[in-house]
Each structure stands twice: as C-alpha cells, then as structure tokens.
TrEMBL record:
Gene3D superfamilies: 1.20.1280.50. InterPro entries: F-box-like_dom_sf, F-box_dom. Pfam families: F-box-like. SMART domains: FBOX (SM00256). The lineage of its organism: Eukaryota, Metazoa, Ecdysozoa, Nematoda, Chromadorea. This is F-box domain-containing protein. It comes from Pristionchus pacificus (Parasitic nematode worm).
C-alpha cells in the first residue's frame, strides 16, 4: 500500500513532456526556411513556371471563349474601339478594305461583319459591295412561330425561319422575349431579302409582335409579299388596331390572306375595314376558317356584305372560305351570279370553276339560298348532302361554267342557346 502511494505521488509531481520524433533536428530549431527562400533563385524559378502555366491557360481560355475578361469572338456583332486600334489591318484605308472584301464570296463577306465595328460598317454601308456581292435574294417564306415551352426550357421565345424553295435551304434563329429592336437587330438580314410569303403561327398575336415585324420589314428593299397566313394565333391580347397595323405594311400587295384556327378573337379583330386595306383587284383567296370567338353576345365577325360588294365592283372573284362571318344569303347569291356572268363574257378566261364556302354564318340558310337562286333563274342543284355540309352546284341558264357553293349551317347546340337567351 505504501509503495502504491509513492508511485501515485511520483506521477503527480513529474511533468509531462512530448516525445521528440526527430531528436537530431533540435540544433536547427532557430532556422526559418521562409526567410531563406524569399528572394532566392528558387523563388524566381517558381514564379517563372507559374507565369508560363497561367499564360498557357489564358490562351486556351481566350480561344475557347471561357475567359471572363475576353468574350467569345464569334458571338460579337461589333468590337470596341480599342480592338479596332490594336488590329494592324484596320490602319488601311476603307477603300482598300472594300477592294479586299469584294474578292470574297457572299457568305464570307457577311461573316466579316462579326470581326470588328469598322468592318461591320464597311460591309453594311458599302454600295459597291452590295452591287457586287450583297445583292437582294428572293425569300420564299418567312415563318414566325412561338417555341413550345418544352423545347425552350420554360422560357418564352420566338423562332424566325427563312425558307428558300429554289436552293432548298432553311435557316432559323431563336429570339427571346421581350422582342426589343435594339437588342435583336435584324435590319441587315432583312435588307438582303425580298419576301414572298409571311406565315405567323402558334403564338400570341400582340402589338409587340407586329411592331417587331414591321420595323424589320421596313429594311427590305422591296416589300411586296403575296401571302399572309395567320395560323393558330391567340387574339385575346390583340387590340382592334393590331391587324390594321400589319396590313398597313403588307396589305396592298397581298393575293392570299388566311386566318385559320384563331382563338380568343373578337368581332372587331377582322372586319370589312381590314378588307378595305387590301387591293381587291389582286386578291385570289380569302380564308377565315376554324375560328373560336371569345365570350361575347355577337357570335360573328363584322366581316360581311360590304367586302363581297367590293369584290363584285372590282370584277374580281376570289375563292372564299368564310367562317362565322356576317354575310347574308342575298349577297352570296349576287356574288355567284356576278361570277357566272363575268365568266360567260370573258373570252380569255381559262379557269371556269369557282368555289365559295360559308360556315356557321347565322344569316345564311339553305332554304333561303335555293329561293334566291330561283329568283335569279340560276340552275341550283344539291350535289352532296351530309350532316354538316350541303354542296350546291350553280349554273346559269345558257352557260357551262359552274359555281360551287358549300354551306355548313350553325350547329344545333348554338341554335338552342340562342333560343334560350
């Protein structure tokens, strides 16, 4: 017991010391390696190696476009003035650069715009380059459509596609909302095109879309499209003047105008006033089909007899498809009779068959149409009768020309709603 107590007292008194793993290094305890390394040859050598490595990484980053300081070269539309000054070739006079660019092909000359701001100005403003290389090109179709959210990652975007039938080529760009003219400049591209057909589909028809399109179309050297198609558009955000603004830019040259599968449309969105903006002597086809009117008491567009009388007075009878319009039975019969008379006395006429389709128009009824034809001494016979459509073949008394009239009556459900209201 006494020996155990002595051992405990010894442990309490003896200090704890840390075991030295390297006893031979005690004599070097006063040596500071940092002081010895600073300013030595080893430090300078390490700095040179780090400089070479960082320079190589910087070159690779600039080339691949991963550098934060230097943007990717092919994404630039114009460079800063400092880049222009640093480029030795920009010390040449503009005349020499124009002469050099004139030796290039069309594609290479257009890509020169992306090098720097000076080259961009030279390519866009040089008259000699436009006459030799950058001549206008006829574009078969300009298609503008809304990109589905599944394809755009939930973002609101618009696709603009250029289609050329002759070369069987197609190019497209994606433009994000908002459609700002300053951030999305397309003036140079439109200045090289003569557009034949404009097709707008699968988006909301708003003033923003029309303003963006009109501003770019004004850059075209000759704006005379022959077709305007509005397909599957949402008119709920459109104003009564939205379509007026678009027709003011392209209406006088149109031969075909089509409004199909429009929804959210109101009676004032397409009226006789819109047809008055067109050149009625040029129109070959007018289509208003599969439209869905927004909730309102008036279930018809204010497109009616006045438009048909405009075509009759111009002695021009386009193919008509009128859905939920405000035409009447008497004027439709006048339209068919006038066409038969004009075809009979036109010796140069080759096409002697015409079609008019009237769908879900409340003021046109089958029984009234047959009575009106008998009053005008027109041979009217039913060639086909189905549940939804009645087709009439109409001929004059002494003529061989034929006018086909297709009538789709108002659905029974809508008639019941009208009677209850």
């Amino acid at each position: 017991m006494i020996s155990f107590q002595m051992e405990v007292n010894h442990l309490r008194i003896a200090p704890l010391t840390r075991k030295n793993s390297f006893p031979s290094a005690r004599k070097f305890s006063g040596l500071d390696f940092r002081k010895e390394f600073k300013g030595s040859v080893l430090e300078r050598k390490a700095k040179n190696q780090r400089g070479i490595i960082s320079a190589i990484i910087g070159r690779i980053s600039d080339w691949t476009g991963l550098s934060r300081k230097t943007p990717r070269r092919h994404n630039l539309v114009s460079d800063s003035q400092s880049d222009d000054v640093q480029c030795p070739i920009n010390e040449f006079p503009c005349e020499i650069l124009v002469e050099i660019f004139s030796k290039l092909d069309r594609t290479s000359a257009v890509k020169c715009r992306e090098v720097c701001s000076k080259w961009k100005v030279i390519v866009e403003d040089s008259t000699s380059l436009r006459e030799s290389l950058l001549t206008t090109k006829t574009l078969s179709r300009l298609c503008i459509r809304g990109v589905p959210k599944k394809e755009s990652g939930g973002k609101k975007m618009v696709e603009m596609r250029w289609i050329d039938y002759d070369t069987q080529s197609c190019k497209a760009i994606i433009i994000p909302y908002p459609l700002n003219i300053n951030t999305n400049p397309l003036f140079f591209a439109f200045s090289l095109f003569e557009i034949q057909r404009i097709i707008i589909q699968d988006l909301a028809f708003t003033d923003e879309i029309v303003h963006f399109l009109r501003t770019n179309l004004h850059s075209c050297p000759s704006l005379s499209p022959v077709q305007l198609t509005l397909n599957n558009l949402d008119f709920s955000a459109a104003k009564s003047l939205t379509l007026h603004h678009l027709l003011a830019a392209v209406g006088k040259s149109l031969e075909v105008i089509e409004i199909q599968s429009a929804y959210g449309i109101r009676p004032l969105d397409f009226t006789d006033a819109h047809v008055s903006q067109l050149d009625v002597n040029k129109i070959r086809r007018l289509v208003v089909d599969k439209i869905r009117l927004s909730g309102c008491t008036n279930r018809s567009l204010l497109l009616g007899d006045h438009s048909l009388r405009l075509f009759i007075s111009a002695n021009n009878f386009p193919t008509l498809v009128l859905d939920r319009c405000n035409v009447t039975t008497a004027v439709v019969c006048d339209y068919s009779q006038e066409w038969l008379d004009s075809a009979q006395f036109d010796e140069n006429a080759v096409h002697r068959h015409q079609v008019c389709t009237v769908k879900r128009c409340h003021r046109v009824k089958a029984s009234h149409f047959e009575d009106e034809c008998s009053k005008r001494r027109l041979n009217c016979r039913r060639s086909s009768v189905t549940r939804t459509t009645t087709i009439y073949n109409i001929q004059s008394e002494h003529g061989h020309d034929e006018f086909t009239f297709a009538l789709c009556p108002v659905p029974v459900e809508e008639k019941k709603e009208e009677m209850t209201n």
